[in-house]
Amino acid sequence: MDHSGHGMTTDLPPFTLGRGLEFSPDLFFLIGCLTALGLYGWGVARLRRRGDAWPVSRTVFFTVGVLSVALMMCTKLNDYGMVMFSVHMVQHMVISMLSPILLLLGAPVTLALRALPVAGRGSLGPRELLLKLLHSRYMKVITHPAFTISMFIASLYGLYFSPLFDFLMGSKAGHIGMMVHFLMVGLVFFWPIMGVDPGPHRPGYVMRMLELFAGMPFHAFFGIAMMMATQPLVEAYENPPASLGIDALADQSAAGGIAWAFSEIPSVIVLIALVYQWYHSEQRQAVRKDRAADRDGDKELEAYNAYLASLRSR
To answer: N or C end of the chain: smaller count of CB under 10 Å?
Structure first.
């Protein structure tokens, strides 16, 4: 059966990293990745033309994020992912937990708001529509922790432990839709936590860390459940092609190990980013206070000293 549109997956030779990384583009994701890079590049070029700076690090993060999606979906990893649970789980983990973090560190929404032209008075252009979306009730709902954490968990247990996964794997459109879903869930989950782009839900740094760690244990439990299973959990990987030379149960156990181990990687990356942002936020706040003190002759300190003097006089 031709699952991916790139060749007969039933005739794939045994998996090696070299074979998995061979170019085998999925047209939908290839066009999507090229479009994303093109639009981002246009935004950066527009800022540069008018003399505005844009951090190179953000461009690098976004580019690597797009390339990580292309690596999963435009190579033979995508073909092997149709018949090997372990390779599919690598795709799932990267697209839902690593790619979103890299894309968000590129601050694409901030870039769009700065690069898109302002529409004339009384009219709605792309920039105004984006602002309207950011402040909409819909966006408040989908970025609320109750929704993001629930979707993050449901994308594991609700998908793999129900007939839905086999249904989606039965067609190319279903498989593409599932991968897009993984990417969108990751973006919505990490967007409020990363705090780089503006959004309706922006908690403090401690709350962001709590949100981050609230979802991670479920990944570990999911991976352990797969590793301990004594029979195949999904029909799609129950009978792998003989040409692969693999055992379905052993491959499922490997997939569980990948899910369990991968939950640590994004946690560390996001935690480092949050600590970095927190530190710089405190630095900026200290600079603002120093400037205010210079302007008003440090009235706050004078008031505090006067308060201490009043206490002594009592």
So the answer is: C
Q: pTM here?
A: 0.81
Q: Which residues pair with 75 in a beta bridge?
A: 23
| CA distances from residue 205 to 85, 115, 270, 276 in whole angstroms, order as listed | 36, 28, 11, 11
- Burial code (b: 16+ CB inside 10 Å, e: under 16) for 146-178 equals eebbebbbebbeebbeeeebeebbeebebbbeb
Which residue type does 99 have? S
Q: How far is CA 148 from CA 145, 184, 186, in A?
A: 5, 11, 9
**Integer CA distances (angstroms), 223 to 183, 226, 253, 310, in order:** 19, 5, 8, 63
Distance CA 300, CA 65 (A): 46
- 3-class DSSP assignment, residue 209: helix
Confidence at residue 2, expressed as pLDDT on a 0 to 100 scale = 42
The pLDDT of residue 120:
72
- Whose structure tokens read 């690593």? 98
Neighbours of 103 (CB within 10 A): 26
Structural contact between residues 81 and 91, judged by C-beta atoms closer than 8 angstroms: yes
**Of the candidates 66, 106, 93, 256, which has an alpha carbon nearest to the alpha carbon of residue 182?**
93
Residue given tokens 């190579």 in the structure block:
75
| C-alpha to C-alpha distance for 103 and 70, rounded to whole angstroms | 13
Residue that the structure tokens 């942002």 belong to: 277
Cα 3 to Cα 8, 81, 171, 176: the distances in Å are 8, 10, 7, 11
User: Residue 123 gets which letter from DSSP?
Assistant: -
| Cβ proximity of 127 and 118 under 8 Å | yes
**CA distance from start to end of the chain:** 89
Question: 23 - beta bridge partners?
Answer: 75
Convert the pLDDT of each residue in 97-132 to its tens digit.
999 999 999 999 999 999 998 877 777 888 888 888
